[in-house]
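User: Quick sanity check before I run a bigger batch. Here is a single chain. Can you write out its predicted 3D structure?
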Amino acid sequence: MMEKDRDQLDELMGEVLELKNLVEYQPGSVVSRTLVDKEAVTLTLFAFDEKQTLSEHTAPHKALLQVLEGTGKVIIEDEEYELQEGETIVMPADVPHAVEA
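Assistant: Done. Predicted structure follows.
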């Protein structure tokens, strides 16, 4: 899996990118594309169709979520945050969180 992910970054090397163009929306779905999957860091892009969610879960590392297009709601340990396009939030490790488009 890591070799595949490293190859994805190699394909993008030296290009000017708009991250929102690297993963396509699909009606009624959440689509993801992992660009980096290493022990120290994972970089995954998600495209959420309207009203789609990523259910509550925890992660062993801090996570940075940035809204590239549209709006979203992030719930971190029962506290809700409304994010607008261009805004970012950092989620702590080992704390329950969820995402809703």
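DSSP finds one helix and eight strands in the chain.

User: Great, the batch can go ahead then.
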